UniProtKB/TrEMBL annotation:
It is a single-pass membrane protein. The keyword Cell membrane does not apply. One of its GO terms (molecular function) is ribosome binding. InterPro entries: LETM1-like_RBD, LETM1/MDM38-like. Its main location: mitochondrion. Pfam families: LETM1_RBD. GO terms for cellular component: mitochondrial inner membrane. Residues 43-128 form the Letm1 RBD domain. The keyword Oxidoreductase does not apply. Keywords: Membrane, Mitochondrion, Mitochondrion inner membrane, Transmembrane, Transmembrane helix. The gene is Letm1_2. This is LETM1 protein. It comes from Oxylabes madagascariensis (white-throated Oxylabes). One of its GO terms (biological process) is intracellular monoatomic cation homeostasis. The chain crosses the membrane at residues 58-81.
Length: 132
């Protein structure tokens, strides 16, 4: 059924609390990685990607905090998210948004594969015509 306004507000607050908690945890882990880098250790590929994602999230947090701090500005957040979908830090994404993003990436990869297949087929026809 449909949730009440109070329940939806509580769910949103929980979502933002969980997002900030995850971002804080990621920041602590990233700080340890930076400490290891400064002491000459090498990061694995996974650690490097996590560090880059966390740094990007921290930079995205600055404009997002404006919406949280300024009263009633959070009402404009859906409009800005529609205009700038990558504005939110990754820890604040919902599961449906994450799945939607994965579907878009998969479709783009499929289109690229289709284009490359057609290009190779065209090149094969040209080579066959040149040699024949």
């Amino acid at each position: 059924g449909k949730k009440s306004l109070r329940q939806r507000a509580v769910d949103e607050l929980k979502h933002y609390y969980d997002g900030f908690h995850l971002l804080w945890t990621d920041t602590k882990v990233a700080a340890r990685m930076v400490w290891r880098l400064l002491h000459g250790q090498v990061l694995t590929r996974r650690e490097r990607r996590r560090l880059l994602r966390t740094c990007a999230d921290l930079f995205r947090l600055v404009p997002f905090l404006v919406f949280v701090i300024v009263p009633f500005m959070e009402l404009l957040l859906p409009v800005f998210l529609k205009l700038f979908p990558e504005m939110l830090p990754s820890t604040f994404e919902t599961e449906s948004k994450r799945e939607e993003k994965q579907k878009k990436k998969l479709n783009a990869k499929l289109e690229l594969a289709k284009f490359l297949r057609e290009t190779i087929a065209e090149m094969a026809k040209r080579n066959k015509a040149d040699t024949g």
